[in-house]
Design the sequence.
């Protein structure tokens, strides 16, 4: 017996702000969730699985029109024609109280009730699938106690959308814990909601399969489904990558790199492990340039130089399709700060000021936190979308101060000061 466990397809998830990126492959990114869904069905057909399990959040929100639902229904029809059954629980994003438009689904599809947990017995396979959908987006109770007991002599599968005891970056829904799942007596728990793949337990096997397609720079690495084979009660599972766009965050060290021409080599070296075995997809990469380099002075004199150099370096990688989503700088200008602090000029004054502000628990540090917080609060939402500094973290604030110091020192150098 073979089945696929997938979750969190988030079909037609809105990718906001792409128009801010010049040259972004907007259409490829916006259709990525559909393409990954098609790959999922392709794989189910190729493997001739007995059934497909979908553990919630097929959709990202209520449909703007019927096109989203019709696309997914079309994929289910492909499964129906091949005799492959599909079992679905609805999660917080596609709960019955969220999705207002409805389509009749093909006969091979079972959507579990949101009123009570159900058991579907597949007599020909001696498999029992237990599940319960979300009635509304907010489900704060543990649903596991309401699930039926295992069917004796059957391979028992629990289909559940849950945050367990909590996962970073995910809201808490249908909370439960590992001992509760194990005690239920099922053989396999097919979990959804958490977008990073995580094998929580082997016997019984309890798995978050992760989402099918990364949607932004925080959802990095391979995304896909679990292909599960059960033979005489023995479980073999394989993680199958199905994403069509692979998101990565890449650190490129530039210590000792003093020539702009050398950036290509540094970028290619850092990128190599990301590309290995993954040439058949678009790579969306967020690059952070790190280290102490004289190129920081060049960037201060001509802002945007290093970002442009990274985009050019990506164009020169002919073996794969690469889009640089963003270039961040965590650079410093080579400087002996102890010696610089003794100087009686603008450089020395700046270094001493930064040391004073960054001192432990100083009033200046608290004032800097407040003023930066007011500045961020006054910025438009489109400017502060995504990652913003954690001003309540003194270590992060000190890092921002050191970065600002490096930028000012580089500008002083560019304007004629000997830094």
Sequence:
């Amino acid at each position: 017996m073979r089945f696929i466990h997938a979750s969190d397809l988030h079909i037609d998830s809105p990718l906001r702000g792409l128009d801010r990126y010049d040259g972004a492959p907007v259409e490829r990114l916006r259709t990525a969730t559909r393409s990954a869904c098609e790959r999922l069905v392709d794989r189910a057909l190729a493997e001739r699985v007995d059934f497909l399990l979908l553990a919630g959040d097929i959709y990202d929100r209520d449909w703007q029109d019927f096109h989203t639902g019709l696309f997914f229904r079309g994929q289910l029809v492909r499964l129906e024609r091949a005799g492959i059954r599909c079992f679905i629980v609805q999660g917080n994003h596609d709960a019955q109280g969220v999705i207002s438009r409805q389509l009749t689904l093909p006969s091979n599809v079972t959507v579990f009730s949101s009123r009570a947990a159900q058991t579907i017995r597949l007599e020909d396979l001696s498999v029992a699938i237990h599940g319960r959908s979300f009635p509304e987006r907010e489900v704060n109770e543990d649903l596991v106690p309401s699930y039926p007991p295992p069917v004796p002599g059957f391979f028992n599968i629990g289909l559940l959308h849950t945050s367990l005891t909590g996962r970073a970056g995910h809201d808490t829904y249908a909370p439960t814990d590992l001992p509760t799942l194990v005690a239920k007596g099922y053989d396999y728990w097919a979990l959804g909601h958490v977008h990073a793949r995580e094998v929580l337990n082997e016997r019984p096997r309890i798995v978050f399969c992760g989402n099918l397609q990364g949607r932004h720079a925080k959802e990095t690495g391979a995304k896909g489904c679990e292909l599960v084979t059960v033979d005489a009660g023995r479980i073999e599972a394989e993680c199958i990558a199905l994403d069509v766009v692979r998101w990565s965050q890449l650190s490129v060290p530039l210590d000792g790199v003093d020539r702009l021409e050398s950036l290509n080599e540094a970028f290619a070296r850092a990128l190599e492990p990301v590309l290995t075995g993954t040439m058949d997809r678009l790579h969306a990469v967020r690059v952070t340039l790190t280290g102490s380099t004289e190129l920081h002075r060049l960037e201060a004199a001509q802002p945007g130089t290093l970002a442009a150099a990274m985009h050019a370096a990506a164009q020169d990688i002919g073996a794969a399709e690469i889009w640089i989503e963003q270039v961040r700088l965590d650079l410093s200008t080579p400087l002996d700060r102890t010696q610089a602090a003794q100087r009686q000029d603008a450089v020395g004054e700046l270094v001493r000021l930064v040391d004073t502000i960054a001192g432990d628990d100083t009033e200046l540090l608290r004032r800097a936190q407040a003023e930066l917080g007011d500045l961020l609060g006054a910025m438009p939402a489109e400017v502060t979308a995504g990652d913003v500094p954690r001003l309540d973290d003194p270590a992060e604030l000190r890092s921002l101060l050191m970065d600002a110091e490096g930028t000012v020192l580089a500008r002083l150098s560019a304007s004629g000061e000997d830094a």
User: Anything to note?
Assistant: The longest strand covers residues 321-332. The chain has a mean pLDDT of 87.
